[in-house]
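FYI - complex with zinc ion, inputs then prediction.
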Amino acid sequence: MEFSDRTLKCIDCGLEFVFTAGEQLFFHDKQFKNDPRHCKQCKAKRTKGGPKVRPETRTTCSECRAETTVPFKPTQGRPVLCRSCFQKQLSKPKQAVEPIPIPGPSAVDVQVAAEDSQAEQQTLVEVDSIPGPN
Ligand SMILES: [Zn+2]
Ligand SMILES: [Zn+2]
Protein backbone atom coordinates (compact mmCIF):
# COMPACT_ATOMS: atom_id res chain seq x y z
CA MET A 1 0.00 0.00 0.00
CA GLU A 2 1.26 3.42 -0.98
CA PHE A 3 1.22 6.37 1.33
CA SER A 4 1.91 9.98 0.71
CA ASP A 5 2.20 12.86 3.10
CA ARG A 6 -1.08 14.42 4.09
CA THR A 7 -1.84 17.65 5.85
CA LEU A 8 -4.15 17.38 8.82
CA LYS A 9 -5.47 19.94 11.19
CA CYS A 10 -4.83 19.71 14.91
CA ILE A 11 -8.09 19.71 16.86
CA ASP A 12 -6.39 21.30 19.81
CA CYS A 13 -4.48 24.25 18.44
CA GLY A 14 -5.91 24.32 14.92
CA LEU A 15 -2.51 24.27 13.30
CA GLU A 16 -1.93 22.18 10.25
CA PHE A 17 0.57 19.42 10.56
CA VAL A 18 1.93 16.79 8.25
CA PHE A 19 0.85 13.22 8.64
CA THR A 20 3.82 11.75 6.88
CA ALA A 21 3.81 8.67 4.71
CA GLY A 22 6.02 7.01 7.30
CA GLU A 23 3.56 7.76 10.05
CA GLN A 24 0.69 6.54 7.95
CA LEU A 25 2.56 3.32 7.39
CA PHE A 26 3.06 3.04 11.13
CA PHE A 27 -0.64 3.64 11.76
CA HIS A 28 -1.46 1.10 9.09
CA ASP A 29 0.85 -1.44 10.69
CA LYS A 30 -0.75 -0.86 14.07
CA GLN A 31 -4.15 -1.02 12.41
CA PHE A 32 -5.09 2.34 13.81
CA LYS A 33 -8.30 3.33 12.13
CA ASN A 34 -8.26 7.01 12.90
CA ASP A 35 -5.99 9.72 11.66
CA PRO A 36 -3.96 11.50 14.31
CA ARG A 37 -5.90 14.49 15.54
CA HIS A 38 -3.17 16.40 17.28
CA CYS A 39 -0.03 17.99 16.02
CA LYS A 40 3.24 16.80 17.49
CA GLN A 41 3.37 19.56 20.06
CA CYS A 42 -0.10 18.92 21.37
CA LYS A 43 0.50 15.20 21.33
CA ALA A 44 3.67 15.68 23.35
CA LYS A 45 1.73 17.81 25.79
CA ARG A 46 -0.90 15.13 26.17
CA THR A 47 1.35 12.15 26.50
CA LYS A 48 4.32 13.44 28.41
CA GLY A 49 2.77 16.50 29.91
CA GLY A 50 5.42 18.47 28.12
CA PRO A 51 7.81 20.93 29.66
CA LYS A 52 4.95 23.06 30.88
CA VAL A 53 3.85 20.67 33.58
CA ARG A 54 4.70 21.99 36.96
CA PRO A 55 2.88 22.31 40.20
CA GLU A 56 0.43 25.12 39.90
CA THR A 57 -1.13 26.99 42.72
CA ARG A 58 -4.06 29.29 42.36
CA THR A 59 -3.51 32.52 44.13
CA THR A 60 -4.57 36.12 44.10
CA CYS A 61 -2.39 39.03 43.11
CA SER A 62 -1.56 41.14 46.13
CA GLU A 63 -1.71 44.26 44.02
CA CYS A 64 -4.79 44.06 41.82
CA ARG A 65 -6.51 41.04 43.38
CA ALA A 66 -6.67 39.28 40.05
CA GLU A 67 -6.66 35.55 40.19
CA THR A 68 -3.53 34.04 38.81
CA THR A 69 -1.65 30.80 38.95
CA VAL A 70 1.95 30.46 39.97
CA PRO A 71 4.30 27.65 39.10
CA PHE A 72 5.12 26.92 42.70
CA LYS A 73 3.70 27.30 46.15
CA PRO A 74 3.66 30.93 47.26
CA THR A 75 5.17 31.51 50.65
CA GLN A 76 2.52 32.32 53.20
CA GLY A 77 2.19 35.98 54.01
CA ARG A 78 4.35 37.16 51.18
CA PRO A 79 2.97 39.23 48.34
CA VAL A 80 2.33 37.54 45.06
CA LEU A 81 2.14 39.57 41.91
CA CYS A 82 0.43 38.78 38.68
CA ARG A 83 2.40 39.32 35.51
CA SER A 84 1.16 42.79 34.75
CA CYS A 85 1.79 44.02 38.28
CA PHE A 86 5.18 42.39 38.14
CA GLN A 87 5.91 44.35 34.97
CA LYS A 88 4.71 47.52 36.64
CA GLN A 89 7.06 46.89 39.52
CA LEU A 90 9.89 46.53 37.07
CA SER A 91 9.11 49.78 35.36
CA LYS A 92 9.10 51.80 38.54
CA PRO A 93 11.92 54.29 38.08
CA LYS A 94 13.31 54.13 41.60
CA GLN A 95 14.20 50.53 41.56
CA ALA A 96 17.60 49.56 40.36
CA VAL A 97 16.22 46.67 38.46
CA GLU A 98 17.93 45.61 35.34
CA PRO A 99 15.60 45.34 32.41
CA ILE A 100 14.37 41.80 32.35
CA PRO A 101 12.93 40.46 29.12
CA ILE A 102 9.36 39.17 29.10
CA PRO A 103 9.56 36.04 31.19
CA GLY A 104 9.77 33.02 29.02
CA PRO A 105 10.20 29.46 30.18
CA SER A 106 12.80 30.65 32.65
CA ALA A 107 10.37 32.05 35.22
CA VAL A 108 12.60 30.80 37.95
CA ASP A 109 15.47 32.96 36.78
CA VAL A 110 13.17 35.94 36.61
CA GLN A 111 12.00 35.33 40.12
CA VAL A 112 15.53 35.04 41.39
CA ALA A 113 16.48 38.25 39.66
CA ALA A 114 13.45 39.97 41.12
CA GLU A 115 14.19 38.72 44.60
CA ASP A 116 17.71 39.96 44.43
CA SER A 117 16.54 43.48 43.87
CA GLN A 118 13.43 43.36 46.00
CA ALA A 119 14.70 41.50 48.97
CA GLU A 120 11.46 41.81 50.88
CA GLN A 121 9.17 40.84 48.09
CA GLN A 122 8.56 37.58 46.43
CA THR A 123 7.54 38.20 42.89
CA LEU A 124 5.86 35.55 40.90
CA VAL A 125 5.02 35.50 37.27
CA GLU A 126 2.58 33.44 35.38
CA VAL A 127 4.36 32.08 32.34
CA ASP A 128 1.74 29.79 30.91
CA SER A 129 -0.29 32.64 29.53
CA ILE A 130 2.54 33.79 27.32
CA PRO A 131 2.05 32.67 23.75
CA GLY A 132 4.75 30.38 22.54
CA PRO A 133 6.67 30.76 19.30
CA ASN A 134 3.80 29.19 17.41
ZN1 LIG B 1 -1.81 21.22 18.09
ZN1 LIG C 1 -1.91 42.14 39.72
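Strands lie at 6-9, 16-19, 57-60, 67-70. Residues 10, 12-13, 15, 38-39, 41-42 surround zinc ion (ligand 1) (CB under 6 Å).
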